[in-house]
Amino acid sequence: MTLPKDFIEKYQRLLGNQAADFLATFEQEAVAAFRTNPLKKVQKDFSDPIANTLWGHFGRVSGKSIEHVTGLVYSQEPAAQMVAQVAAPQKGMKVLDLAAAPGGKTTHLLSYLDNTGILVSNEISKKRSKILVENVERFGATNVVVTNERPERLAKTFKDYFDLIVLDAPCSGEGMFRKDPDACQYWDKDYPAQCANLQKEILQEGMKMLAPSGRLVYSTCTWSPEENEAVVVWLLESYPDLELLPIEKINGMVEGLDMPQVARMYPHLFEGEGQFVAHFQDKRSAPSQPQKVKSPRSNLTAEQRQLWQNFSKKYLRIDLSGLLQTFGNQLYCLPEGLPDLTGLKLARNGLHLGTFKKKRFEPSFALGLALTSDQVKQGVTLSPEDFKAYVSGNTVSISGDYQNGWYQVLAEGNGLGFAKLVNGTLKNYFPKGLRFNS
Ligand code: SAM
């Protein structure tokens, strides 16, 4: 890989006698890894675990594999896995992922939350927010709202609201050069300083949303001190209530530059790509009473409520808690405890349950991905051959004594949406935009 001359000189200066080892890593391939998804109840034995992680494994997973399509795995290189691992939200927390697409940190945060609390996953780019929704849906969490907003607009709705905020900031991306050599082309010596200005602007908005005594995790996938330690110094000076929490250095992480609490990951020391992480605690004491928010209201008609209840009673074994809301003829279940989101651009208003069609209710693909097989009364299991036929858009013949009706489609035990079985033929409900031939 041809690295910019200014980049080479910068890191020769910064890394001294380690620079040669660091620069040599750009001749090696990027490290591939993935996380398994604890929300999926049927797990597989994957080899080559990443030490000191709950769900990390080295290796590559095909986007066409059953594990990927059912959301059992999420591809993410090892250094990027350290961000949500540092954040490690406790169950029940209200969490914001402020720059979330395509969803690596979001899905990892959801693994910790285990369908408790709330995650607001935000992405400013509309196009990228659609990819984020797809990845969130595949992961199958029920407690996440995806917004497509500018941070300053979010801050108006969520003032002092979140227990934990993660900003995995847009950055100069030096740590991604191996994975995406094109990222090199955007780099020039002034780029890190420009990125730092944007990072501070986003952090200023993020800080408005942090609840007293909350935590903030700031990360970048770059090594430039301008976007890392200098931003940390700026934060500590601008917000005297923040203090740095020490990050345990595992797997070859090293201290920051004149800053022992933060963590840097270099590919010659840590088996992964480039990453920087800082962890802050707000020292203000938590309010004795939880903050009151203006709650949204359910807007279902009596008929819609009845149709949903009929479906739920007939096909599901669980009562989905949360607030039911319709947008047009689409039914969603919002996590409880959210403020009124009116006025915000939503890419996913909670868990999509399904669609009202004339006098009936049709369950969504997202619902069939989110529920485990023991939460649904009836399912049909696809063989590996049937799986290939189904994801390419074909119907599948099901032999055996099955009544007509809705079934959760299962592959290796995990859900792949719902489909209607009519006289032994499973109709195809795999979304058109996701179909592929393998
Ligand atoms: N956290 C993501 C993950 O783990 O999959 C990666 C996030 S990426 C490093 C940074 C994101 O910040 C991009 O998706 C980008 O669109 C978004 N972004 C760019 N400008 C922004 C801004 N002004 N405010 C908020 N987000 C922004």
Q: Could you provide a short overview of the structure?
A:
The protein is of the alpha+beta class and 438 residues long. The protein is built from 12 helices and 22 strands.
Q: Top keywords for this entry?
A:
alpha+beta; single chain; 438 residues; binds S-adenosylmethionine; 22 strands; 5-stranded mixed sheet; 25% strand
Task: Please give the number of β-strands.
Answer: 22
**Estimated helix fraction:** 25-40%
Beginning-to-end CA distance, first to last residue: 32 Å
Overall, the morphology is: globular
Rounded radius of gyration (Å): 23 Å
Q: What ions, cofactors and ligands are bound? A: S-adenosylmethionine
Main β-sheet, in a few words? Answer: 10 strands, mixed
Question: Structural class of the helix and strand makeup?
Answer: alpha+beta
If helices are DSSP runs of H or I spanning 4 or more residues, what is the number of helices? 12
> Residue ranges: pLDDT <50 for 5 or more in a row?
none
**Strand fraction band?**
25-35%
Average of pLDDT: 96
How does this structure look, described?
With 438 residues, the protein is α+β, with helices and mostly antiparallel strands. Helix content is 26%, strand content 25%. It is built from 12 helices and 22 strands. The strands form 4 sheets. Strands 4, 5, 6, 7, 8, 9, 10, 11, 12 and 15 form a 10-stranded mixed β-sheet that branches. Strands 18-20-21-22-19 form a 5-stranded mixed β-sheet. Helix 5 (104-113) links the parallel strand 4 (94-97) and strand 5. The structure holds S-adenosylmethionine. S-adenosylmethionine is lined by residues 99-105, 123-125, 128, 151, 168, 170, 198, 202, 221. The site of S-adenosylmethionine (SAM) has 17 residues, from helix 5 and helix 8.
